[in-house]
Fold this sequence. Notes:
Radius of gyration of chain A: 17 Å
Helix content of chain A: 25-40%
Largest interface: A-B, 33 and 33 residues
Distance between the termini of chain A: 13 Å
Largest sheet of chain A: 6 strands, mixed
Number of helices of chain A: 7
Radius of gyration of chain B: 33 Å
Low-confidence stretches of chain B: 213-217, 360-368
Strand order of the largest sheet of chain A: 6-7-8-3-9-10
Oligomer: heterodimer
Strand content of chain A: 25-35%
Amino acid sequence: MEQQADTLKVDDLAKSFGRGSGRVTLFQGLSFSVAAGQAVALTGESGSGKSTLLHLCAGLDVPDAGRVCVAGQDLSRLREPARAAVRRDRIGLVFQHFNLVPSLNVAANLSFQARLAGRPDAGWCDELTTRLGLAGLEHRYPEQLSGGQQQRVAIGRALASRPDLILADEPTGNLDQASGDAVMELLLSLVAQTGAALVMVTHSERLAGRLPHRLHLANGRLA
Amino acid sequence: MMYRAALSALLSHWLRHKVQLASLLLGLALATALWSGVQAINAQARDSYDRAAAVLGQDRFARLTAADGVVAQADYVALRRAGWPVSPMIEGRLRLGEDTWRVLGIDPVTAPKGVAPAGMRASAADFAAFIRPPGLAFGAPETVAALGDQPGLPPLRGLEGALPGLLIMDIGIAQALLNMPDQLTALVLPPEVGAGLPPVQTIASGLVLTAPRAGGDIARLTDSFHLNLTAFGLLSFAVGLFIVHAAIGLGFEQRRPIFRTLRALGLPLAALCLLLAVEVALLALVAGVIGVALGYGVAAALLPDVAATLRGLYGAEVAGALTLSPAWWLGGIGIALVGAAAAAAQSLWRLWHMPILAPAQPRAWARASARARVLQMLVAAVLGIAALALARWGQGIVAGFALLGVMLLGAALALPSLLAALLAGAARLARRPLPQWFWADTRQQLPGLSLALMALMLALAANIGVGTMVASFRLTFTGWLDQRLTSELYIRAETEDQAVQLRDWLTQRADAVLPIWSVERPVLGAPVRIYGIADHQAYRDNWPLIAAAPGVWAALADGSGVLVNEQLARRQNLWPGATLALPGKAGLRVVGVYSDYGNPQGQVMIGVDLLTTLFPDVPRLRHAVRIAPDKAAALAREVRAAFDLPADNVTDQAAIKAFSLGVFERTFTVTAALNVLTLGVAGLALLLSLLTLAQMRLPQLAPVWALGLTRAQLARLELLRALMLSALVLVLAVPVGLALAWALLEVVNVAAFGWQLPMHVFPADWLRLGALALLAGGLAALWPAIRLARMAPADLVKVFAHER
């Protein structure tokens, strides 16, 4: 998958949990890279470490060994504030459970990360609102939305700051098939439009098939 | 930009949780209000004492005084002739009608600069008017207004800043007014006294030099009262902080998912903590301003009663209007900030150590570890041991308050473990599934409710403790009044001539006419009222002696013995067997000590013959009359008619008792008000905790609802739970309250007021308080219960549909 400049580059990554005899190695020696504009599905059985790998890529967790570089910055060398800055400025995160800020309305949630990053773009947010089918819902709060609507807000939030890398963890896992397909369609279309790299964790073969590239995590190794 | 966006996201939580915001602001505002209100009262009182000290100059100047309190004018003249720059001063109390006024006589020519208040510097014409009869008296504007055109007084002039109740005049005028010719109470020395002067002792051997003092007598005397108020203020503040801690803690716990999201979206941990600290500071600032304003209201409302208490207990005059400095306002806001910081510290600490990928489910203390509870119990045990040690070995007012503090804190810390044990026991006894769930669920709620329950227990224990103390005092006081007021009528003549006629007239119609004659003279350096009493069976049968030597009444009658009141006995260690010098007679034997509640001053009783011998000019206007009770009213009517006496001059026993009890009740109005406020704050803490927890309880209630319980049934169980917990807290608060009452009566009261009182228990009061506690608990649970009963099923179903 080596193409132009790598937006995400993972080298010889290892992660374990527990201590002593109870220590479990989740994976080791993982290496891959994702270039700008590429969309990669990360699949694997439950408990294979997909979400943990995604968290490491986002700098939410720290590896035992190896390197994670996002837009040329080695996250493993950065301290927490600098890793936070990379997430804020370079990465868009989409969670399975949406994780919207419940006290902010749709419009504020959608523009939230862009404002955090100091790059608010009202025009782009308006376009995202329209493209995501959220027009007319701007003043509603998350609890007043359906699951599909909430996930579309989460996608909008991830894209509003025009990040280099989108990391999505089971973005349709909480939705029915029709809603999931619609959300997926939008995500891929918008990612393509922004030119961001996308890594999407899913356990669905069907959804994974819609992405041009796939990494399969099994027994601590990538296939 | 990042900080603004993140702060707006954090603050938006409060806009969506208005009840929680209100609880936080209200808790902090109430805590600040009660604290700053008490501080305002203390500041006002201290200001009055400082003004008193400044007016009297008593603290800043060395003084020469006599052991028996009276300095002969001849000694003053001799000292002046010897070159001593002394200035004479006379101080005494003047009774006009039912009121007593303090009179201060100074010599404007010789007085060192600063003895008289600055406002008294006047023109030559004023100076002449001041020293020449009829003289000129200065007093606070309210004092001048109250006195009006009272006959017998020199012309009055208002003086801003003067102490209420005090009249300052020329020494000659004061001597005449106080009926103390050629007598002085002190000689004041300027700060600089020239060298080479002959020793005072060689000129006036009986005089003692007293060095300038840092604090006023009244300030020292009332320290305990203010410490008492401060302790109450602190208790209220602590109870208020429970609310703040609960509200901030819940606010943090509820926002754990938001914190995780914010950090995932790139907000550094340090920035998040900083923003939360700023948020807490902003909220504290708003609550502080509200609290200080409320505190002003509390102080303004309570000050008249506090002034009455201080006057009643210590004879200290405090202005009735508040004048507060900017430092007080800033101090109030500062204490709100400190309180909020203390309440938020634990939550911020937890957040600082929370991994970014920690579970996002709100914990709301529900998973507070058993280890933390064990630690709490250990601290409670240590505090219990400290309380026992203080009770056994502690002495003085500070030790008394330390005892109260450790006792209350220890009991509050032990409460959650005790409740958990009781609930676990109940759960083991339950056999049917619903009670089993009820007890288990209640136990699970404990961590979330424990702070509010601790606040409730503190308030209830304080209520029981202070209530028991006041009621014990009331019972003792009422009994004491019965003993002291044995005569059926109390009559005051208008003039000495009329008094002679009155005595003759009454002697023919009543069983006995007993004089109530007294003078106020300095004894052992302080003003003491000296009464002369007749040798009569009424005293032998009823007088409330708490210590007596054999033959007490005979010794009093023959003039060799003297009775002293409990305050004077404790203050000067004058118990039977000791000797006491009165002006004009030394070596009087103390033969008894009597209780004398509600009187700030020392008091002495001698035989009436000795009184008239020592003080021939004693006013002889007042008399007690013994007569068959059924004839008293008729005699009162007759005496009024025969001597054309004003109605106030003839009072019966019941009227005086009612008046005295009225004074007593007013004395404790402040205590009662603070008690009620503290209980109200605790009830509010419970309400707010239940309200904020109600929303978080849905995941626990929804499955039970889904399994077949109706919303109404669940609501009733919620109500029952609050009532049951309130009742349990009350049961546990009773022993704590009684221990508190014991400490107040046995340690604090003796140190503060000089009286020791027997402790009585009043179970009926506990029942009343129990009803109040249940009412507070029930009301607190009512709203959340109604909301639950009316909750749309769709909201309960959501629990199963979403991560909450």
